[in-house]
Design brief:
Blueprint: H1 3-17, H2 21-28, H3 32-42, E1 48-52, E2 68-73, H4 76-85, E3 90-93, E4 107-112, H5 122-130, E5 133-144, E6 157-159, E7 169-171, H6 175-184, E8 188-200, E9 205-215
Helix pairs in contact: 5-6
This protein binds S-adenosylmethionine (SAM).
């Protein structure tokens, strides 16, 4: 399936999911704590934060009003909720496979959480996000780690669901593929850890996340 068709289907799915997203997701996701800890550590007064695949904007909504939050997503319904909940934030319809528009300015911090499972080219997407960060900028991303000996990890892409979203894939990356993509994006890894991502109730499995804290080098880019 072409990327554009897949993204259209995914956007429709998340459009429908938007009103119930936060209440449903809080029961099945496991990465809230590390995200909060990261934001506490890196977001200073007046910082600019980019929230990629922001959904309804709930991860960055409670940041102090002095923080300039810019979120983007492919589902307009998600963005509508994000705008209502943080009226002084800026929320845009945008696909992370495309470069971040220059007009959004440069950021100190970026998040891409719970969303890179839909990314079919990790190096490209990390490059796009890195390009929006200032030197020394920090980024927290979750990537579904592929471990070929694990059940359901046999292929690098598998159907997200056999019930909804037929034909829309979820992409898994081996550790080597992740480090290669990080290097190609010109990012420095500060930390890596494996963390349960979310409960895939249909497949009855916890999706395994690699959580990467990445930094844009201060010089030489
Ligand atoms: C599971 S939600 C995650 C929302 C939020 N980041 C969180 O962690 O709770 C996935 C979001 O990624 C968005 N998304 C999927 N593909 C995308 C793309 N190519 N560009 C931007 N957003 C995308 C979806 O529309 C959806 O809102």
């Amino acid at each position: 399936m072409k990327r554009s068709t897949r993204i259209e289907r995914l956007a429709e799915y998340y459009e429908d999911f938007a009103p119930d997203y936060v209440s449903t997701w809080k029961d099945i996701q496991h990465y809230d704590k590390p995200v909060r800890a990261f934001l506490r550590e890196v977001v200073a007064e007046g910082a600019r934060v980019l929230d990629a695949g922001c959904g309804p904007g709930h991860l960055t909504r409670a940041l102090p009003p002095t923080v300039d939050v810019v979120g983007f997503d492919i589902a307009e319904g998600m963005l509508d909720i994000a705008r209502k909940k943080r009226p002084h934030g800026a929320y845009h319809l945008h696909d992370y496979h495309l470069p971040i528009p220059r007009s959004w300015g440069r950021f100190d911090v970026a998040l891409a959480l719970g969303t890179l499972e839909f990314c079919d080219d990790l190096a490209l997407v990390l490059t796009n996000l890195a390009g929006a960060l200032r030197p020394g900028g920090r980024m927290l991303v979750s990537v579904v780690e592929r471990r070929p000996h694990v059940r359901l990890h046999e292929r690098a892409a598998r159907s997200l669901s056999s019930v909804d979203l037929k034909g829309v894939s979820m992409y898994l990356y081996t550790f080597a593929e992740q480090t290669d993509a990080i290097q190609r994006a010109g990012l420095l890894p500060r930390s890596y850890r494996l963390h349960p991502g979310w409960r895939h109730t249909e497949y009855d499995v916890d999706v395994l996340y690699a959580l990467w804290d990445l930094e844009v080098p201060r010089s030489g880019r």
